Amino acid sequence: MSDSRIMILQMLSEGKITVEESERLLNALNKEDEVRNSNKNENKNTNQSPNINVFPNIPFLEATKLGINIRDIAQTLHQTVQQTIKQVEPGRKELKEKMKEFGSWMEDVVETMAAELTNHSNLPADCMSVDFIVPAPKEIEKIKTFIIENIFGEIKLSEGQSFKLLVSGQISKKTIGEMQSSEWFSNKAIKIEDDKMYIGFSNDTSIKGIIDLNLNLPANSKVICKTINSAVLIKGNLDIEAIKTISGNIRVDNSNIQNTEIDSVNGIIQLENNKNITSHINSTSGDILIRKCGLNKVKINSVNGDVFIGESNIALETEVKTITTAGDISVEKLNGPWKSVEAISRKGEIVVDWKGNASPVNNQRVNIKSGGEGATLYAESVSGNIKFR
């Protein structure tokens, strides 16, 4: 029996959920298993590798393929939880504690998976330390978009006058072979197609090692970043199209976040000093913090991570929609014209300290109106607290 089913049955035995709620949760997990088994059968028919459910002791064998499978598993888990939450109606005060407990379990599972794959003690015996600068490709002037995928290691991006890439970490000598480490990286980890530059390792490449990428890019370069459990740090006038990680923290400072997708299972997402944010932000159990930013159209989904928005600017066209199940939502010190706020918490507390008219509805909803034109803000939580100040 899987850990998720054991935990559901344990919560049922302890009276934390009802029989009906346990059935809904188990049915949702059964549907996930059916999808996974179907995918396995399809993979067998097409001679493709099956989804990874048991991770090997040597984490760097087929490293990138494992990373992609982990992302798929995490995304499936996230979708399953969201579908399950819609089915389970809050019956009493224990719901928030129940969802927090379930979210903590999810966080532990993800961290364990990532740790198994990035356990430094399992590095191959022939690993050597590397620290080198990758020469800029001849076609660098025509590159507009940089796609960086670093399954095992940190991604750090900064605005600079020109392209500069520093690679450091540990790599197997057998992986590099007879080449110099910088030559190996240029040949194996960099690819240019039209106006796009791919940095890292695709799903058909095997590596043995852990590397950090420290990259300077010209202003207004378009960026896409992917990793598993290491941080993504971005600072400067760069256009961020997407950031996807499992348990690594994400921080973006002074960048352009327009039409951007930011996804993390349990890493903290922190956005500071970014102008005119137009973004979809998804997190299962990691907290989301937005400070000193310009808000345009922002949609935030979280299962049990807390959401904080503060010291930010809003405009006439601003729309902010924040939905969480068991996390708390706090909105403070917004500057600019605003029209209305709708806050819904079926079990948590709603605290309002706002100029204008506030009218509670059924002890679960508060509508706040200023009477003028401006931004629209929406917040919803099943059992978390909501505060507007």
Major sheet? 13 strands, mixed
Named CATH topology of the largest domain: Pectate Lyase C-like
Q: Radius of gyration over alpha carbons?
A: 23 Å
* Global mean pLDDT: 75
| Helix vs. strand class | alpha/beta
What is the count of structural domains? 2
Taking strands numbered 1, 2, ... along the chain, how are they ordered across the largest sheet?
5-6-2-8-10-12-14-16-18-24-20-23-22
The CATH architecture designation of the largest domain is 3 Solenoid
Count of DSSP H/I helices = 6
The percentage helix is 25-40%
Describe the structure.
This protein has about 400 residues and is an alpha/beta fold. It folds into two domains: about 5-120, no CATH class; about 125-389, Pectate Lyase C-like (3 Solenoid). It is built from six helices and 25 strands. It has helices spanning about 5-15, 20-45, 65-85, 95-115, 175, 180-190; strands at about 125-135, 145-150, 155-160, 165-170, 190-195, 195-200, 210-215, 220-225, 230-235, 240-245, 250-255, 255-265, 270, 275-285, 290, 295-300, 305-310, 320-325, 330, 340-345, 350, 355-360, 365-370, 375-380, 385-389. Strands 5-6-2-8-10-12-14-16-18-24-20-23-22 form a 13-stranded mixed beta sheet. A twelve-stranded mixed beta sheet has the order 1-4-7-3-9-11-13-15-17-19-25-21. Strand 22 and strand 23 form a beta hairpin. Helix 1 (about 5-15) runs antiparallel to helix 2, helix 2 (about 20-45) packs antiparallel against helix 3 (about 65-85) and helix 3 runs antiparallel to helix 4. The chain starts with a helix and ends with a strand. Residues about 40-70 and about 115-120 have low confidence and may be disordered.
